[in-house]
Amino acid sequence: MSSYQKELEKYRDIDEDEILRTLSPEELEQLDCELQEMDPEVGAPAQGTRSSLQAFGKGEGPWAAKTRAAYRAWSPKGAREKVSVDALGTPGGTPDQRSGLTCSPKLIPKNMLLPAGLRQRDQTKKSPTGPLDRDALLQYLEQQALEVKERDDLVPFTGEKKGKPYIQPKREIPVQEQITLEPELEEALANATDAEMCDIAAILGMYTLMSNKQYYDAICSGEICNTEGISSVVQPDKYKPVPDEPPNPTNIEEILKSVRNNDKELEEVNLNNIQDIPIPMLTELCEAMKTNTYVRSFSLVATRSGDPIANAVADMLRENRSLRSLNIESNFISSTGLMAVLKAVRENATLTELRVDNQRQWPGDAVEMEMATVLEQCPSIVRFGYHFTQQGPRARAAQAMTRNNELRRQQKKR
Predict the structure, then answer these.
(1) Where is region (Disordered) located (predicted)?
(2) I need a surface site. Which of 121, 244, 286, 380 has the fewest CB within 10 A?
(3) Alpha-carbon Rg of the chain, whole angstroms?
(4) Using a CB cutoff of 8 Å and minimum separation of 24, what contacts does 406-414 make?
């Protein structure tokens, strides 16, 4: 048996009810204050102890009081465990003893993180007048605040003006000298129309008297351009409407048939802006391009192509050895599809132009780094269409493109 158990055996037969009945009100108050110092957090009660401690004065709670008395008898000061004060409940005994257990409200607990209402016992002696209605209380407080009259000014305005009022000094208007012109000029100016006066003002550089259009028309042309005068309303220029571009007239079925037959006359496949091409047909076209030896340019701009088409294009690049230009801009290709195309470009030594910009979503830093690596490892690519967002891949790509073009120039010289 340990020393703790030996010490605890001495206090198992203590009659705690008898001890509490013999305590004076001052001793009961001191006991309650010491318990509150041990645990200032007045919150959730200990499990299963409230009901047993509410009647410890009647002999119904032998466990809590006996344990506290035994524990306080052998435990040194400062090493006591914290016991919840709220677990004490409402003590029994006489009313004087119950009132004596109330601790002083000025007691400052050790735990200062609790709200002020939980640091001390409830001191409200009035009974509630009704249930709490928060909305009604807020409405009442707002109404009371609106009914409070604003206080009057302590120093009312008497209407007295201090200081001298500002009076603008009078300035003498300079007398302009009358300019006399030759009789012929005076007669010409007197009989000039507003349009002629506008052109004369433009020639003399008085551009503030007219609009920019009137000024430049009078300077550039040798005739009278303004026929309405200086104060006329400026009319906007009528520009010719620019018609929309006609739809792509390419017949996809004929193109697919020509690619399969390896037609010599077909050197460019342009399917730009055709947004209703079925995915199986585009896949068949890429399959046919694997064995074609005459098509030099393949463009799929704004065709709503996604990753399946990008994977088909990647498979085509691994086998085709005649394609020079590939354009898949403005599509719905993700970073996965772009990575597949870039890996296939490494295995193709004939491609010289690649454009992959303006996809639906940004491919990411990893794809941009892969683009720069592909340009460094593929000297055949001399044109690359993509707007880099990171400085590192952009600088590497620019340096690689400069090197590739220089190699191409040296090969042409030879």
Answers:
(1) 38-60, 80-106
(2) 244
(3) 49
(4) 407/379, 408/382
Spatial separation of the C-alpha atoms in residues 102 and 130, rounded to whole Å: 26
At 398, which helix (H) or strand (E)? Answer: helix 391-413
Is the model's pTM score more than 0.85? Answer: no
The residues, ordered by sequence, that sit 6+ positions from 59 with a Cβ below 8 Å of its Cβ are: 17
Q: Which domains, and CATH codes, for the chain?
A: 3-118 (no CATH), 183-220 (no CATH), 252-413 (3.80.10.10)
Distances (CA, A) of 123 to 30, 93, 103, 254, 334: 18, 20, 10, 95, 69
CB-CB contact of 331 with 312 (8 Å): no
Q: Residue written as tokens 């910009």?
A: 357
Taking the CB of residue 263, how many other CB atoms lie within 10 A of it? 15
Quote the CA–CA distance of 220 and 358 in Å, as a whole number: 44
